[in-house]
Amino acid sequence: MRRLLPLTLPFALLLGACDAAERATDATASAATPAGAAAASAPPADTGNVLRMRVDGADWQADREFFCAVHPPGMDRAVLVSASLGPKDANEQTFNLNLSGIDGPGRVHLQSSASWVHTIQLANLDAARFLNGGAMGFDITVELLAVSADPVRVEARFAGQLMSSAGSALRIEDGYLRCSE
Fold this sequence. Notes:
Layout: H1 4-32, H2 37-41, E1 50-55, E2 58-61, E3 64-70, E4 79-85, E5 93-99, E6 106-111, E7 119-123, E8 131-133, E9 138-149, E10 152-163, E11 169-180
Antiparallel strand pairs: 1-2, 1-11, 3-4, 4-5, 5-7, 6-9, 7-8, 9-10, 10-11
């Protein structure tokens, strides 16, 4: 037990710091972000983390758990983005985008045939569509508008299709994300 304390203490402090920063960011983002249909069509604000898209014509916007990393240790030339919608329970909807071989802004076409290079996934959309993209399949175009490792910043637009666990394709339109750490 005594040997574990030096290993777990820095990790616990890091988690606490990240959670405090996220709560401050969430309050700012939710105060500045419009809801509903206007959110999908509104131009992006200059600050705060945002992840929004239309899924089969319905607006979807993350409201917490924003995370982004650019070229994290052990993952050279990688961009990782994730965020969640709804309470942290069995119905939490989570979004993940992982890109490899990224040097800077530009267009990336993601297809499930190359999922070892890139992947995109939306989980728990509803009971029938609990897995969308990822292992089910995807065909998405991502336009990276900004990519910076120091300070960490990712901004992108995306659109395409995610295959669903229900056997249908979800149409993703007007996807936009902006994340900084």
